[in-house]
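Appendix B, example 12.
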Amino acid sequence: MYSLTLKHGQPSIYSSSKSMKERPDGFRMKTNVAPGIFKSLRLENGIQCLCAEYNPKENIHLKKMPLNDKFFILRIDKISRPGDTLLMVDRKLGSEMSTERWSVLLLSSLDEFNFFASKNSKIRTLELLIPADWFLKQLNPDFSIGLLTNFMAFKTRKSQIDENNLFLKSLFLKILSAAQNTKIDLKDFYDKVQSLLSIFFLSLNTDLCNFLESEKVKISKDEIARLIAVRKLLDTDSPTPSFNSLTKIALMSGTSLKTKFKKMYGITVFEYLQKMRMQRAKILLLTHKYSVKEIGHRLGYSNLSNFAIAFKKEFNQLPHELLS
């Protein structure tokens, strides 16, 4: 595995050729490790934009170390690969695996960030390094830095921020496409970045508002233990428990269980159950011992179309495609 340790804001992989000195805004990947292009652009308001598009020829581990300089990092990745690719922040797993995956992460320069990529993957990355003062001015003035810190810690565990926003994805692709031009129209480029940031901050302010409400939910130590028991039951490969049975284990009302489970795990009871069912389905499919129909029935699906839709939503492919 190719390993590299950097500080936030540094280019990830680059050659030490003279061309790098001649063109500080453009970097070429080491062709024996990951051919591709890396560009760094300084924009208005002190924002630094790092764009990368490359294809690792061997497994890669990039580690970015914390800095004392105060800025925030909006990182967007689009990864298509046959192998496993993971993002980690402060040693916490950062995303799930699928044939094509998008990841949108909000980081702090105080975070340690690890990126693991498998060979033969195709990686597109946009990092926006945003000065803390400017970043905080974009937030609702009612939000404190403490709320943002707690939110980011929670979101790191959950891993994704608005990853399904089609406008965000569209602008991401346009920005990377523009970065490949030999002569970049910086005004047009900055306008695209500003549009992306406008969408991001609109979503972030909404998420912070919802998070502020969730922070009002208090969970005692005894309730935490019972919620863990509920999760463990959902993790087991057994008949799906009824919601009523879960409330009895949690010693809570249905409303309280829904609210506190989501506060603790970041997703609803039903979303968690669905993820576990799909994980079991994937494991069973990979054994090649069961047909799609058998697995669907085993997981409680009387309608195989519903099973196929749920599986594709989770893994971006149909069950039979995994068997081919």
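Confidence is low (pLDDT under 50) at residues 13-28, 83-98. The CA atoms of residues 41 and 49 lie 5 Å apart.
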